C-alpha cells in the first residue's frame, strides 16, 4: 500500500509556479487536484492512456467535468501534473522498500525482489504506460523526460541494485537487473509463466552477483 507523501512535499509537487497557476491555491483546491491526479494515475494504469479520457478521469475522481477543467483546462496540463504526481509516488516507494530490507538479507537480491514487486504497483504501471505512449506522443515524451532522467539515477532506498567495484561495472549491474525486470514486467509469457519467471529471476540475481564479483560463471545456471 502506498503511504501518503508528507504535506509539504505534496504541496510543492502539486502547486505550479505562479504564472502557471490555473486554479485558486487553497487547501481544498490542492485536495481536489490530488484526487484528480490519483484518478488519472489509476485510469492510465487500468485502461491505458488513450482509453482514459478526461471525462472518465473526472468521474473516477468524483468531480464534475467543469471542476476538472477548472483545475486542468487541457489534456497537456493534466498529463504534465500527473507525471509529477506519479513520479513523486515512485520515488517515495523506492525509499520505502529500501528501508524495509530485512536484517541479513542480501542487498542486491532484496533490491531485485523489491523492484520486481514495485513494477506491479499502480504508479509504476501507469508510468510504464506513459513511456509506451511517449514513443508517438511528443507532448507525453516531453513531460516524461525529466522524470525518466531522475529515476535513471535512483536506487532502492540507500542501496543500489548492484554494489561495489568499479563505476562502469556497478552501473552495468544496475542497468542489467533493472531493464531485464522492466522488460519482463511488460512481457506476456504465454505458457508456464510462474516457472519461467522464477527461473529468470534466479538468473538475474546470479548474473548481478557475478558483476559484483560475488559469484562465478559456473553459478549462472546450476544443474
Structure commentary:
This protein has two domains: 9-159, Tetracycline Repressor, domain 2; 167-223. The chain has ten helices and no strands. It has helices at residues 7-14, 27-47, 54-61, 65-71, 75-99, 107-118, 122-134, 138-152, 167-186, 193-211. Helix 2 packs across helix 3 (54-61), helix 2 packs across helix 7 (122-134) and helix 7 packs across helix 8. The longest helix has 25 residues, at 75-99. It is elongated and about 60 Å long.
Q: Would you spell out the secondary-structure blueprint of this structure?
A:
Layout: H1 7-14, H2 27-47, H3 54-61, H4 65-71, H5 75-99, H6 107-118, H7 122-134, H8 138-152, H9 167-186, H10 193-211
